[in-house]
Amino acid sequence: MNLKISNLAQIKEAVIEDSDLVVIVGDNGTGKTLLLESLTLFKEHYRDNLDKLIDTYLDNNFLNIDIETNWDDLIKYYRNTKLENIEDDNKDKSPIKKFLVKIEVENSINVEDFFSNKFELMTYEINDLIKERVLFTEESNVKVELLDIPEVKELYEYEFRFILADDVGILLGGEDEKNLATNVFLIQSEEDLNENNKTLESVETYLPKIVNQETFKKILTRNLKRNFLKYVYGLNSTNGRLLFLPSERNLYMDNALRKTLDQNYNKSKLRYSEYLFNKEYLEFQDSSKRFSHSLISEELRKLFGGTLNFKDNGDVDGLTTTDGNVIKRELFSTKQNRLLPYILIGNPFHNYQEIIIEEPEAHMSLKSMNELLDFIKVLIQRRRKKIYLTTHSDVFFSRLNNFLLTSNDFTTKVYELKKSGSETFLESKTKTEYGYEIDLFSNELEDLYNETITIQNENLDK
């Protein structure tokens, strides 16, 4: 998802391109948080409304998209799998059925016009939301534009995977799950059952529980079309949720935070990033009441130096270190407090595909900073998460720069928020054989070097 944001408080213009890792460097007060909050709001609003737009389009233009596949083979798979599940109550999971699909779009202009118009209207809504939730004002000329609305071809061919679990179908993309959206849907419902199935032979006992061929084809066809449109217009950002980890959080939760979900957002007077974080943490608490033993990854345990303990209400109670000592929550070190937001990533009910981390190096020693960066590497390379980072630390960025110089298995975009008078603008940085050069760090370090040499020479002359 490539965005252009203009007139966002002091930020005159910022163009942000989608990537596996996005790094934004800037001095204090240049607008890094405002930029991330606006980006998050856009992504969240887009994600929340895309399914509705797709359903609206299909309700009115269903025949414009044609699906071709081996329906006989798919129906046979569905019937056999359904019967096996009925006969074997202990069967945990159905096999995965792979099948090729050809998708023909009869009028691609019709699709493009519909979604382009809807996205344009959506940007007006988002502009108003940014004023309300990010800037807390009605007096702003902020403008957000979506730069990469795709063209629609007339013919596509994909490999899908289909899993049947009880009456729920799970539709996936090809081997690379980034290729196509995931879709979960009901195969069977009260109105889907067809009494004519009783005429079929050999499976008469179970047939009232099996959707007839036409109904199965109809249900799967619609969901294939939904997945296709979600893939085309998902812009690599609609699978899973987005998690925002602000720079200053200690996770000492109380009932006041729960109220942030119960009142009008504007009345809460919280920054948008804080509101998002509180909301996700409160949902995490509910998960940790039941799944506390499996929420923390092995990599996080190493960072914490032990296993976290949870209270009955799902809040963090303390830490049992690797040598068996128990540390109460109130006695956590700065590093342990700083790491606490990362436990949200393990929420089993939320598939966080994009994680925004604001100033991960804040309040950390060089050693802790390096350990945290190693964890972030795991998120990118092994967990395949998309990461957005902001920083104003030359030390942290230097270590990150070394990582980027030695890693080529993911895409990266690096930006610098630079001042020009009273305004700032976002500058895209180019990777060289030495990595990425940040003007803020180069200038400040040069000034520090010159000042140091001057002072040392003056002392030698005394």
Automatic annotation (TrEMBL):
InterPro entries: AAA_GajA/Old/RecF-like, Bact_Antivir_Def_Nuclease, P-loop_NTPase
Ranges of residues in domain Endonuclease GajA/Old nuclease/RecF-like AAA: 2-395
Pfam families tied to this protein: AAA_15
Domain of life where this protein originates: Bacteria
PANTHER family: ATP/GTP PHOSPHATASE (PTHR43581), EXCINUCLEASE ATPASE SUBUNIT (PTHR43581:SF2)
Listed name of the protein: ATPase
Lineage, top ranks: Bacteria, Bacillati, Bacillota, Bacilli, Bacillales
